[in-house]
Amino acid sequence: MLPDLLLAFSDEYKILNLFRYITFRSGGAFMTALIVSLLCGERFIAWLKAHQAEGQPIRQDGPESHILAKAGTPTMGGLLILFSFIFATLLWVPLSNAYLWPVLLVAASFGMIGAADDWLKLKKRSSDGMSGRQKLVLQLGAALLASLIFIQLSPEELRYGVALPFFKDSLIYLGLFYVPFAMLVIVGASNAVNLTDGLDGLAIVPVMIVCVCFGMIAYLSGNINFANYLQIHYVPGTGDLATLLGAIIGAGLGFLWFNAPPAKVFMGDTGSLALGGALGAVSVATRHELVLAIAGGLFVVETLSVILQVASFKLTGKRIFLMAPLHHHFEKKGWAESTIVIRFWIISVVLALISLSTLKLR
């Protein structure tokens, strides 16, 4: 919005030319989202506590320490993240950017699905909210619409193609099968972040790390000079997604202020589904879907641990892990929560650096 309003006066006021630069707008979006989340956080948490007398329901089959330490903590803190980052995004991204709207569509719709799930959990006083099938159908519907929009926005030569990391000018053409593939990326990323969100600060920091990584990818992919130099596919218009991701990082940092151990609030499915969906949508827009699997490798491993646990128990009656997702396995082994969280953050940083290396190693 600000670029649309202020650049019209840039000939008269030269300083307004700053709004032409994605780097400047990304910094502005970051600071705006951070300030909004910090200023609104305390009052918002107080409001949640007033309407959630007993806080988020805790899994009875989970680690015993959670029942004592986390009982009474309010959930749906993802609303704070969503409001902060959407407000900052609309303020700093040109509203004419076509890629902005499908990403916000995914974030907002997945956030609403998560909010409905969190509300049902509170109403039932159970860790079970919406059925998995209901959530999946709604997510797939939003992902289908966003995927079709991304395909129409993509350059002709990139439509229906999946780029391979480490290989220049390489595409696997899927034809119409690209549509379900893109939907799988968006929905899979959303639910992977949701499964990871089980300890204070465990999900939000890796999300921000992946946002930094994809902010760089979006900026480079949307700039023809950098894209040609790095031999990656040029996707015009995606550069401003770096500004959107900057807003998510700012909102995430503000949320972490209140989510740091011991957490005053949980993001709930409201935040985790929205943030994961947004990351998946950006990866589809920039045509770096497979790089997301590297940068977000922590989320992939957490998801695989659940899949393997369920498959093993159904086939053999035995469990591979003491508890799934994987972070609960380490809790059961006696690792301190802070140890698990910090080590998982370190892994996320390493994976992000590996994913960025794909931009040059071609």
Describe the structure.
This protein has 362 residues and is mainly α. It has one domain. Helices cover 66% and strands 2% of the residues. It has helices at residues 2-6, 22-51, 64-69, 78-92, 100-124, 132-153, 178-196, 204-221, 224-230, 241-259, 268-285, 289-295, 297-316, 326-332, 337-357; strands at 161-163, 171-173. A two-stranded antiparallel sheet has the order 1-2. α4 packs antiparallel against α5, α5 (100-124) packs antiparallel against α11 and α11 (268-285) packs across α12 (289-295). The longest helix is centred in the first third of the chain and has 30 residues, at 22-51. It is globular and about 60 Å long. The chain starts with a helix and ends in a 5-residue tail after the last helix. The mean pLDDT is 92.
Feature tags:
362 residues; mainly alpha; 2 strands; 15 helices; 66% helix
Helix-strand pattern, N to C?
Answer: HHHHHHEEHHHHHHHHH
How far is it from the N-terminal to the C-terminal residue, by CA?
37 Å
Mean pLDDT: 92
The proportion of residues forming helix, as a percent range, comes to: 55-70%
> Segments where pLDDT lies below 50 for 5+ residues?
none
Rounded Rg: 20 Å
* Order of strands in the sheet with most strands: 1-2
Query: What structural class do you assign from the helix and strand content?
Result: mainly alpha
General form: globular
Count of β-strands: 2
Assess the beta-strand content as a share of residues: under 5%
**Count of helix runs:** 15
